Amino acid sequence: xxxxxxxxxxxxxxxxxxxxxxxxxxxxxxxxxxxxxxxxxxxxxxxxxxxxxxxxxxxxxxxxxxxxxxxxxxxxxxxxxxxxxxxxxxxxxxxxxxxxxxxxxxxxxxxxxxxxxxxxxxxxxxxxxxxxxxxxxxxxxxxxxxxxxxxxxxxxxxxxxxxxxxxxxxxxxxxxxxxxxxxxxxxxxxxxxxxxxxxxxxxxxxxxxxxxxxxxxxxxxxxxxxxxxxxxxxxxxxxxxxxxxxxxxxxxxxxxxxxxxxxxxxxxxxxxxxxxxxxxxxxxxxxxxxxxxxxxxxxxxxxxxxxxxxxxxxxxxxxxxxxxxxxxxxxxxxxxxxxxxxxxxxxxxxxxxxxxxxxxxxxxxxxxxxxxxxxxxxxxxxxxxxxxxxxxxxxxxxxxxxxxxxxxxxxxxxxxxxxxxxxxxxxxxxxxxxxxxxxxxxxxxxxxxxxxxxxxxxxxxxxxxxxxxxxxxxxxxxxxxxxxxxxxxxxxxxxxxxxxxxxxxxxxxxxxxxxxxxxxxxxxxxxxxxxxxxxxxxxxxxxxxxxxxxxxxxxxxxxxxxxxxxxxxxxxxxxxxxxxxxxxxxxxxxxxxxxxxxxxxxxxxxxxxxxxxxxxxxxxxxxxxxxxxxxxxxxxxxxxxxxxxxxxxxxxxxxxxxxxxxxxxxxxxxxxxxxxxxxxxxxxxxxxxxxxxxxxxxxxxxxxxxxxxxxxxxxxxxxxxxxxxxxxxxx
Length: 731
Ligand code: FUC
What we know:
alpha+beta; 11-stranded antiparallel β-sheet; 5-stranded antiparallel β-sheet; binds alpha-L-fucopyranose; single chain; globular
């Protein structure tokens, strides 16, 4: 994070594995001995007693998980610059080049800094220039975010800052190398540059983390190798490498919603003016910013993006900046497939492989069950047991929900090897847990989950709607995967019969979709979580034409919840209104989202750098917004789908493209390219005067395709490798 000071610059840096704690299994041994009693208390209406018993006997050990930590700061001090006399100041983040820059004039000299993170080289690169020879003088220091560190100048001239996390086993080293065109002087704890024309700083960092069970790597050796690999490489070469890595990902999708004079204003002003003025380009910017953040925080081989992506500057961050998976972690990955950044999901899938191991221990100890389970949070050490408090920590479907991402990755990309080797074993393990743990609801005789909760309200219950929707979806997808792979035929029958007995969605007294088994929703409840609407988005078993009654009820529930919310909750509502095919309502939510963060006590809105608020900020809202903008323009779930069985669209054997399903009147003209759709299609759209004018479909798979636009449907058979063009009215 580049703070952009003139006489004093702070560049705060992180590494994904700087966390408190150490390898640890969090399961509560033999908690399962109390499982039946907790369930019976809940069935008997004794919620408080059930929660108390669960709090004593059923919770994670320890009860909290560990926290993501800041790493340190690179501090640059410019003693010759008087910040009160600086002019022509400009700071920007260029999304096209993933490069931040700061420039200003002082004393007749123009100063400029360019900063980017070179992913292939594992470096942060900072280039400082002055437009008069010899005008650049400054001091560079590394400041740790932790106690007990050492800063030393190494014999090779690099600055090393090493230490360990106070509460845990992570050891780290950050390293700064300097190349300067002009005078240089070094001390033991900082590097001084005198009278240079330009300087390049190279910053890298590493920890001893190898995997969630092993912290025996040597950070110093890792940094030596990183720096050795770039020795003698120029700034221009590093910059070229960075662009060659970033731009092919970023350029896959373009979005043009029109422009206006407002687009040349500073970003903070554009946010403030958004509700009043006409600035459709700001929506496109928010969309691309989400993609930029995902590319920048979740690459193959690394950790998944956490609550703050990796942009956390605190050692005591809100909710520990860990992985909250009762909405937040999933939302981080909502844009990945449709916005053409599928490989950015791979770190999540690597984490799922770990979680299936630690979650198998939790499944055994807490439920005496096979398969694996993840409750509502995980951390670097892959904790899967219920944390914090029994009234919301016991929620069984984190692993099940995340496993649906594996299936979606297959649906979009059609990679059978991935389905066989990675997705199916994890999905099957997540499903097997429910084979052993679903219980009969005494009232209806139908199958439900429990103990669990509807995140994060209503306390500990049996069979919340969200759980039933997720489990039904997961089991359906597991059945489909086993059929496509031609394996586990016997299990498939068993899963099918189980799936058919899961309690279906229920419509309550206010015409709402019930959040719980009982008809106890409060129409005045405006809670940020809209968990029971999972089946509309991100799930798809409630659809306009397949389940019209449930669709109407779900819409009624969303109306009751209202249009105001916290950052990520607004993003969820945005996606939901797009799925309800109401572009103007979706746009209203977007207007609530694109508003200055400081004016929102509800912790919504955007900061001047576009980070989505949720004090201080939570990255899920940024990702959810990008996904929601996409859902307004293109949807590819089957709008005829139902709860009962999966259609060919839902098993990837056919594609259904709903074009401009929720186009708001605010965007009469526009164009988008590079969006991905389930069934292996890549889609470009153009529209004018609110009407679709051109559709281009690049088929990556041979599938029957249905195009739907403005109530009309056109069908054709796509051949992999071919491109199909349609004009106005899909002609
Ligand atoms: C869930 C949400 C909170 C917050 C936290 C990280 O618990 O209910 O609002 O986003 O995750």
